Amino acid sequence: MARLTAMLTVMSILAIACRTATAQDDPKRATTVLKSNLEYAVVGGKSLRLDAYLPTDKEPAPAIVLVHGGGFTGGAKGGYTGELARHLADNGYAAFDIDYRLMGDLGPGATLPQAMEAAQEDLARAVKHVVANSKTYAIDPDRLALGGGSAGAITALLATYGEHRSVRQPKAVISLWGGMYGQESAIKPGDPPVLLVHGTADKTVPFAQSQSIATASRKAGVDAVLLRIENGGHTLPLNQRFQGRTIIESVTEFLDKRLK
User: Fold this and answer.
1) CATH code of the domain containing 70
2) Ramachandran region, residue 50 (left: φ > 0; alpha: ψ -120 to 50; beta: rest)
3) Measured at the alpha carbon of residue 87, what is the angle toward residues 81 and 90, in degrees to the nearest 5?
4) CA–CA separation, 168 vs 146, rounded Å?
5) DSSP-assigned letters across all residues of 171-234
6) Owning domain of residue 248
7) Number of separate domains in the chain
8) What is the per-residue pLDDT across 40-97, written as a single tens digit (0 to 9) for each?
9) CB atoms within 10 A of CB 246
10) Chain centroid offset of residue 239 CA
11) pTM for this one?
């Protein structure tokens, strides 16, 4: 845990909150409807909110809940999770970019393990909200994925595959430079497929984390795709190319094969 704490401290320093543009800001993205700052839960008096990026198709759409990074101490929805959400909505997915409680929201003396647990609990709340409102959002709750970057990826991975799983089992998981830090052995047969995107030069969450997840997944018979970005660092641009396509295109292709 000490090693994990040190790495996530670095992650929190790198966290930057970014504003997400609305559909009206970019006429080329008119196929997406953005509903901002929707409350999905209230915990300890704190309102937890999400941005819903919804395709205009009337048929129930596959969906994904996305979790931002920031070392469990910073960050916010928007940024590259918002960028990914918009792209996926433009490609027929309902994408939900969520905020969640950070360490500072838990009160004086809160610890990293407590913040990690809170993030997983809030992700479960967001999933419950999305599923309960599936008709309102026009989604198919049986085609739901989870994903995130950095601390958000750690949250999605542990909530799905970890020793204390906390969410409804998704159909797929997207991990952008995340890890499980010793809980890989909890992956079991029948778990959902996972896409792992990771730079080999990542000094915040080492590439070996994704290698360990891929190895444990395959041992359990779970479909795992590892995109090894040579010399890539932490929090890679989504338009970075890998084997002829960008990271964001690879994510879309992975989801298309498993949710559509």
Assistant:
1) 3.40.50.1820
2) beta
3) 140
4) 10
5) SEEEEES---TT-GGG--TTPPPEEEEEETT-SSS-HHHHHHHHHHHHHTT--EEEEEETT--S
6) 2-259
7) 1
8) 999 999 999 999 999 998 789 999 999 999 999 999 999 999 999 999 999 999 999 9
9) 15
10) 17
11) 0.90
